[in-house]
Amino acid sequence: MSWSLPGATGSRLTVIFIVSTILILVAYAGLLPYGHWQPDEYQNIVAYRLDSAGFFWRRITTWSPRPASELLIYLYVRCVEFFRQPLIPWGLIPGWALLFTATLLPVFQQKSGVCLGAMLTQRLTLLCLFFLGHGVAELFYWPMAALAYLPTLAAIVTVYSLAESASSERPLERVATALALLVAATSTEVGAMFVMCHGAVDIACVYWQRRKPSGWIAICIAVPLLVAMVVLYRLAVGRVALNGETFGDARYIHHVLPSLLAAVPHALWETIASDSLSIDLRHLVTGSIIKLGFFSGCLALALRFARPSGVCRRLPVMLACFAMVPLTLAAAYYQFGMMACCERHASLRQCLILIGLSSLASTLVTSESLHRLFKRLRGHEAVACGCFGLALLAGLSLSQGRLREDYAMRESLIDSRRETWLSGNDARRSMTVFQTNPGRIVGGYPVFAPGRYGLDAHPVPEITTILQFFGKEGAIFTQPGESAPSGTRSGS
To answer: Which end of the chain is more exposed for a tag (fewer CB within 10 A), N or C?
Structure first.
């Protein structure tokens, strides 16, 4: 895809816009040290201590059949055990790096002499909107989720980028797409579902063109599909069949049609609104502005710069992204009996909708005459910057207050974690857990009523995991925000 940026005014506007988006991303990256653990980290690390190889094998064959992300989580667990520190930023940075690289690297792979400005504005806007307007605590600030879902998102972004720029007949791009799909399929169940949808549409497009696919195209389509099938099959006969996560309405649990019907209205809401977990008029209006603004900006650039050909490469990405919304919602109803099971799934769906909108914009530019008509017009970059700016302002209207609050509580987050780990790592039989209220961006561990807890006849699972992790018999949980007494660093 060729991009250019004529005129000094357009250049200045683009530079201002790029700097603004970078500042937004830096603001979110600045919160990386303040991420959080959930009970999963404590539970899994304790299980790995007891039977490292056996637990890993059981997870990838039954509970979590996604070897790529499970390997990353295992490496993170080993580092935590070695250093006896939570290493939260180091558990988040790999996923962030993969996502940022997958999104921005295509910009800098353009041929020499082609200005990067227009494409860079679109990609930076996409990255910013991954964070703005909806909850991101689990997807971006929880290591156990980030090590699985961010590689999935990065892989899907890679598939999208290749579909935008590559020729369908070049083996190298086809192989790269297949590798990215393999990463998605082996990182999360959502990634495996995406690969299934992408493969089905890809096969339909091949036969729609009425040509027999060559051997390398068939292999590149078939291998990710087969891997995704294996992942979903192992999930179905393992975790799903155990039926141990029935939190919601029994009418939907393990019932396909009721789950699909229940998912449809929520899918429509998510496609328009900014946050599926906040059902109100403000998020509906703001989400509409975000998505319409982003789509309009992408369309303005596509009309000027995108190739009018290649629709059969773009269509599988677009349809798979949009299909993930009702399918993952239906899966949540089927497995849990409820829609609002996990914030990370809702966040990932918002990201996929944005990728789908961008792919839709370039897919619409399929007419050679339409492409030639709009190519003669000027000001596409200014229109795109205006639309992208409107989308970012709408997202910031929801997120800037949350950012301010989390930056204001940075010191208490770090202090409470340090004091808790000092107390947990000392030689005493009891410890003190210094609680803080969860951040609105970075999230946090569940807050419990202040008091003394132990491994008694009525244990609290989320507390028991902490005691087992640190090897303690009991713990004192403080009032949120309460600091350690002067000169006292551990529980009695």
So the answer is: C
Average pLDDT along the chain: 87
pLDDT reported for residue 489: 42
Which comes out higher in pLDDT, residue 81 or 381? 81
Q: Are residues 460 and 342 in the same domain?
A: no
Do the Cβ atoms of 328 and 190 come closer than 8 Å? yes
Count the domains in the chain: 2
Q: Residue 372's domain spans which residues? A: 8-408
Kindly state whether residues 446 and 404 are assigned to the same domain: no
Examine the pLDDT at 338 and tell me if it is beyond 70. yes
Same domain, 159 and 77: yes
Full-model pTM: 0.92
> Which 3 state secondary structure label does DSSP give 439?
strand
343 & 423 share domain? no
Same domain as 160, residue 270: yes
Phi-psi region of 113 (alpha: psi -120 to 50; beta: other; left: phi over 0): left
Longest dimension (CA), the chain: 78
456 by Cβ neighbours in 10 Å (0-12 / 13-18 / 19+) ranks as: exposed
Look at residue 488 and tell me if it is in a domain.
Answer: no
Terminal Cα distance for the chain, rounded = 65
CA-to-CA separations, 55 to 48, 59, 61, 64, 79, in angstroms, rounded: 6, 6, 10, 11, 17
Residue 248 lies in a domain: yes
Last residue of a domain, one of 408, 429, 461: 408
* CB contact at 8 A, 98 and 154: yes
pLDDT at 98 over 90: yes
Same domain, 306 and 429: no
Q: For residue 448, which amino acid is it?
A: F
Residue 2 resides in a domain: no
Residue 486 in any domain: the answer is no
Amino acid at 97: A
Tens of pLDDT along 272-286?
998 877 778 889 999
Residue pLDDT, tens place only, 402-450: 999 999 999 999 999 999 999 999 999 999 999 999 999 999 998 999 9
Q: Which stretches within 426-459 are classed as H helix?
A: none
Do 428 and 475 contact (CB within 8 A), yes or no? no
Instruction: Report percent pLDDT > 90 for the chain.
Output: 61
Query: How do residues 223-242 score in pLDDT, each as one tens digit?
Result: 999 999 999 999 988 888 87
Residues 86, 233 within the same domain: yes
Domain identity same for 458 and 311: no
Residue where the block lists tokens 């975000």: 290
Length of the chain: 492
pLDDT in tens, 455-477: 875 678 889 999 999 999 999 99
In whole angstroms, what is the distance from residue 86 CA to residue 424 CA? 12
Q: Cα-flanking dihedrals φ and ψ of residue 166, to 5°? A: -95, 155
Domain ends where: 354, 378, 408? 408
pLDDT for the residue 394: 95
Query: Rg of the chain over CA atoms, in angstroms?
Result: 24
